[in-house]
Amino acid sequence: MKKTQKGFLLFVVTLLSFTSYAQNTFDLKINELLSNNTQNIVDDYGVPSTWFEIYNPTYGTIDIGGCYVTDDINNPKKYRIPQGDIATKIPSHQYLLIWADSIDYHGPLYTNFKLNADGGYLALYSNDGKTLIDQVKYPALDANTSYAKNQNDEWEKSQRVTPRLQNKPYDGKSAAERLGERDPKGAVISVTAMSVVFTVLILLFLCFKQLAKFHIKTSKKKAAEAQGVDIDKVEYAGEESGDIYAAIALALKLYQDDIHDVEDMVITIERDDKIYSPWNSKLQSLRQTPVIQKKQIK
Amino acid sequence: METGFFDFLLENLKNFWGYTGIASATAGHIIMILVGLAFIYMAIKKNWEPMLLLPIGFGILIGNIPHLASLKIGVYEEGSVLNILYHGVRNGWYPPLIFLGIGAMTDFSTLISNPKLLLIGAAAQLGIFAAYTTALAVGFDPNQAGAIGIIGGADGPTAIFLSSRLAPDMMGAIAIAAYSYMALVPVIQPPVMKLFTTHKERLIKMRPARVVSSNEKILFPIVGFLLTAFVVPSGLPLLGMLFFGNLLKESGVTRRLAETARGPIIDICTILIGLTVGASTQATNFLNLRSLGIFGLGAASFVVATMGGVLFVKFFNLFLKEGNKMNPLIGNAGVSAVPDSARVSEEVGKHYDPTNHLLMHAMGPNVAGVIGSAVAAGVLLGFLS
After folding, report:
1. Is the ipTM beyond the 0.90 threshold?
2. Measured distance CA(A178)–CA(B376) in Å, rounded
3. How far apart are CA B365 and CA B328, in angstroms?
4. Does one domain contain both A76 and A212?
5. What is the number of structural domains in chain A?
């Protein structure tokens, strides 16, 4: 296999592995938990069970089915989330709430352990039961106080319990309004946006600059092989503009026109493609005004 | 009996008079109809962007015939024919389809042969952000300012796409401003180009573009899409369709699809977008100071965009060797307005040296401007929506 082909293959494999990683369960995060639930939300059986929340920060849906959750650091496979259930799919930037009520037959989103109000451990393992995805050691919590990640991705106790919602306060303002408050003159967004536009087009520029070099080098190499000379002695034909080719083509055309008479001295039979129809038949047409001859009756 | 009949007839005629447009017409409607007629005049007699100004002009006439809302025939009345067609504008369906056609008819050869022209397309987006900051300064909200700023991208479909997402109530005025200024490119740009260039610079002859291989042409839409869309995913509808259309053209195996994209699809969408955008400019919600502000900011953004492109070429020339320098007169083409702004480069260049043809060189930044404005729209959408 040639070097370039190997390089391309490596690039594709790297890209594919990156893509598959981007959409898999390793991106999931434990986002919030409530280990002392007395008056917060109740489960499908009307019981205020303990619960924890998993967040999908990616742009794709992730199926958490097959992964393991545990409250025992020595037993990563304590509870396996069942596979093949639609409830285990977490859409992009959404939250999945799992009840920890220690009764696993209540449904796919009910674990066989409870969270401990006096503090404990919670971990999410991948479907091999060995690879840790995320974990948290939580302290003793007051009733109906959650342990949640804040805006800086740090765990803290929170009176503001937000099951299936983002933990940071929601101020009811749109992204544009918040941006307007932080950047009233628009200078930051202008500089940022212009930088992005330039970055994208500079990337394209660099990419095609290299591609052009590669193309010229390949063409020269082919020409050198065809001519049997050293690559340095070959000039790249494509460097000339299209105007030159147009001029050469015109000269050839004029030359062909000059020897036109000789070229055309070929006798051939051309098939007449006119399809017969009474409407275009010459036999049916009137070529001259008919002369009416009167017969004399004797 | 007879008196009763005539009374009834008179009453009916009175009622009918109430239904007519004449009875409900206001000065605003008349002004808008005159604007529509001016658009039609510019399209037919001046030949300024006729494919855009004619449908928009007639759309303005349609939108400004006063009628009772209960008839449910206007563009804003849910369920009417015009309203259904207007969904394509309001929900941003037409602009990506138009971009598909633009991609299928655009030859990126000049850009591929001389990739540094791409950077001019980036520099000319300065107009967008100049208009954005000015709009904020005069009191528009950030999302409205973003929608107004995109006028400086000189790209009608992009302007409609972004304004439909950020400021739907201002879309009519923004679209009219964008298309009007695109039509007026031959009037707006030359003075700016002359102001910022010296006589010597205007005479620079650029190296002819090299011949581009078909492999490079095929790779361009694929690589271009992946690079731009990964950085600015919010621009996906526009960038995806633009590069997909170009791949249809350059692949050489989908000639029929490419012809459909650059023919019937783009024609249908241009008719529908022009007519419905025109019809959306009803006097009652169009004739106000805000629209006037949009027009003023739009004009300023075109001037700044042109200036940005021209000055960037001059700056870039500082780093280029003699013989490789670029003529700053192609800088104006960095605003999209394909191919009018490239034609302006050619005309102004020819005015100073009749043997200096800049058209093909200007097409490079011109199509780069399309990519640049789509990326800029994606960035604004990402920040403001």
Report:
1. no
2. 20
3. 11
4. no
5. 2
